[in-house]
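# nightly structure sweep
# worker-07 picked up a monomer target from the shared queue
# config: single-sequence mode, recycle default, output format = structure tokens
# input follows
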Amino acid sequence: MATLSSQLLLLLFLFPLLVAAQRPPPAFKCTSKTTCKALVGYISPNTTPISKIQSLFQVKTLRSLLGVNNLSPTTPPNYTVLANSTVKIPFPCHCINGVGLSNHVPTYTIVKDDGLFHIANQVFGGLVDYKTIVSANKIKNPNLIIVGQKLWVPLPCSCDDVDGEKVVHYGHVVANGSSVDQIAAEFGISSESLMKVNNISDPKNLVAGQVLDVALKACNSSVNNTSRDAPLLVANGTYVYTANNCVMCKCDATNNFRLQCQPSGLKAINWATCPTMQCSGSNLSLGNSTMLSDCTRSTCAYAGYNKLNVLTTLAAEDTCADPGSNGNSNHAQKMIYQISWSLGAILLNLQLIMLHRFIVGGVKKLDVSFVGDKLPFHS
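# output follows
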């Protein structure tokens, strides 16, 4: 009996590790050889202030956490996050041997009664597999960790373009009962794209607890590659502060997925004051625009920043284009509609003239006979 009890206890101890071993490793492909900003969706296990989540993931500023969750910039640190709510976490991503991992953040300090499975699945919401923590921290014995020991928790991420477009990669933990189609619809992407990015051949193979790489469409911007915040990737429905806190940029699909930036009105960081933000050769300041024609608007757009200045550029955009559509084809379609209406009006006038002459000519008799579905006229 004693032996049987010992075996049962051993099985109970190993069961979490066996379950974790069945879960596909959350490795995101990252071949870009660069760094970028990425996101993961953390499901809070209990009701907690948002400041505690900021501290757990070591997000530098509360504003950046508020921005990716589209919360008001004035949201206080004690804002309550309800249990089982999902909070988007921004972090720096770095490619290592073709795999994307968070750039040595966050770190976690081991407390009494901690275990690697508990840290991975309960503390960090299943966003990382315990074996990944073991590998990243070169832990020889997973069952031997010390109170006070600091561990790097490598979150999955990527910086790769998807189908030639700039995207923000978002780590999503699959919930029980979810499907590929449901997840794709939730984030406004195609099921085919979701399966391709995650190398899923059969949607039935989706596993609860699996971390999916969801490629969120990012707004197009005028930020050049030499800027200190390049590449500035902002996902739809989010905003960021950049240029030493002097500029606020937001992404909105209703604005044709064009990044909208304006002076933040906040106190500068690393600068005494925020520099001027006027477009050269124009009276437009950052965020201001003017119409050049019925369908063309010129905007003083954000182009990045360097050691001394905020960079701007004049950007023209087609205001007649639908969000996400090709502006030229949309404009051409509008021209076709206008021509069609004009031709219709001309034909209508011609018909009225002919009808007038017909009546004035004094038709003696109009006999209409129905034969099948034809309407022959006899005089």
